[in-house]
Design brief:
CATH topology of the largest domain: Quinone Oxidoreductase, Chain A, domain 1
Oligomer: single chain
Order of helices and strands: EEEHEEHEEHHEHEHEHEHEHEHEHE
Bound molecules: zinc ion
Largest sheet: 7 strands, mixed
CATH superfamily of the largest domain: Medium-chain alcohol dehydrogenases, catalytic domain
């Protein structure tokens, strides 16, 4: 079978390995699409030396079941599915406590750091076929496009971060950044009943936010930005701020408009690491809550599948382009072009 591999900085190629054989507790997925995450294209750009080559990259994949193992009763050939990228063991202490699956101590969850028999790292998310234990499968009922189902993992991480912030109906939220993750955050906050204001500099992204029905979109370069934020958020300022851009200016903006008791979520990572200056006395006196988040718990995956399957979150506008696997290098060029939304690699 063919698959996409990252083989060096700015070098992605189509490679070949045998179709995996499944065991009695596995399914074989015929993958239809795999979206390129920041995690992937930052490796392609050479910004993530901690992620080794050659990498059988991809974790935002989606497809249909092509074969099921002998012990599997509740899944069948043709079901539309996604695989849980984290592959939690469900037995270690973090798993039993319902923690984020990226904290799982099980062997399978750590496998991306080990070369397989063909010499590749990674989980083969961008491959014609993928073998996976049936316990890691989520099914969709409504036959949504595979490249939209592929948003399950990023959306689950968004759900996780927002749940940490204890959202409450009628609260005012500010989302800084209208890239893919910013607009996923904004949509989930709106779905949970919050009144969302978005801050974005780039004209293309401002339009995208508006096309998704957000009419409170502000440009942070406006001289009266802070007072406009207060106007849009009921006079006092946002109850909750999601910082979905890894930039010093974004942190500065957030602290400038955060009122007393505001909850702030640091959603994005950036390389090289941005600096931020924060006055500890302000955190103390203003009773700010500053949260970080990465990854998702199993329950967040369940929620993300429902949000996509029912159309509660609209991800179609967040797909910039669909690129066939044979043009994998072009796909990574597009994915790492500033201002672009998700690129979906389509499998043959
Ligand atoms: Zn991702
Ligand atoms: Zn575990």
């Amino acid at each position: 079978m063919v698959f996409g591999a990252l083989v060096g900085d700015e070098c992605a190629e189509v490679r070949r390995v045998p179709i995996p054989e499944i065991g009695p507790d596995d399914v074989l997925i015929s993958i239809k699409s795999c979206n390129i995450c920041t995690y992937d294209y930052q490796q392609w750009l050479g910004l993530r030396p901690q992620q080794p080559y050659p990498m059988a990259w991809g974790h935002e994949d989606s497809g249909v079941i092509a074969a099921v193992g002998g012990n599997i009763k509740d899944l069948k050939v043709g079901d539309q599915v996604i695989a849980n990228h984290y592959r939690p063991c469900l037995q270690c202490t973090p798993c039993r406590l319902g923690r984020n699956m990226n904290m799982c101590e099980g062997e399978e969850a750590q496998q991306f750091l080990v070369k397989d028999q063909y010499g590749y790292y990674g989980g083969y998310g961008c491959a014609e076929y993928r073998r996976i234990a049936a316990k890691h499968i989520f099914t969709f009922q409504n036959n949504i496009p595979p490249e939209e189902a592929g948003f399950t993992e990023p959306l689950a991480t968004v759900v996780h971060g927002i749940r940490k912030m204890r959202p409450s109906v009628g609260e005012k939220a500010l989302v800084i950044g209208a890239g893919t993750m910013g607009l996923l955050n904004a949509q989930v906050l709106r779905y949970y009943g919050l009144d969302v204001t978005i801050s974005e500099l780039v004209e293309k992204k401002i339009s995208k936010a508006r096309s998704l029905g957000f009419d409170k979109v502000l440009n942070p370069s406006d001289s009266d930005f802070a007072s406009k934020v207060r106007t849009y958020t009921g006079g006092k300022g946002p109850d909750m701020i999601v910082i979905a851009v890894g930039a010093t200016s974004a942190y500065d903006q957030a602290f400038e408009v955060a009122p007393e008791g505001s909850r702030l979520l640091i959603f994005a990572a950036s390389f090289p690491i941005p600096s931020w200056s924060i006055h500890p006395n302000l955190v103390h006196y203003k009773c700010w809550e500053i949260h970080g988040t990465v990854g998702a718990a199993l329950s967040d995956y369940c929620e993300a599948v429902k949000l996509l399957d029912t159309g509660a979150v609209n991800v179609e506008p967040l797909i910039e382009a669909r690129v066939p696997l044979k043009d994998i290098q072009k796909a990574f060029e597009l994915a790492s072009t500033q201002g672009n939304y998700r690129i979906s690699v389509m499998l043959p």
